[in-house]
Amino acid sequence: ILLEEGIIFKTNVNVGKDITKKELEKEYDAIVFATGSKKARDLNVKNRDCNGIYFAVDYLTKATKHLLDNTEEISAKYKHVVIVGGGDTGNDCVGTSIRQGCASVVQIEMMPKAPDERLQSNPWPEWPKICKTDYGQEEAIAVFKKDPRIYETTIKECILDEKQNLKQIKTVKVHFNNGKLEEVKGSEQILDCDLLLIAAGFIGVEDDLKKNFKLETSQRNTIVTQLNSYQVKDKYFTAGDCHRGQSLVVWAIHEGKECAKEVDTYLMGYTNME
Question: Are residues 88 and 67 in the same domain?
Answer without folding.
Answer: yes
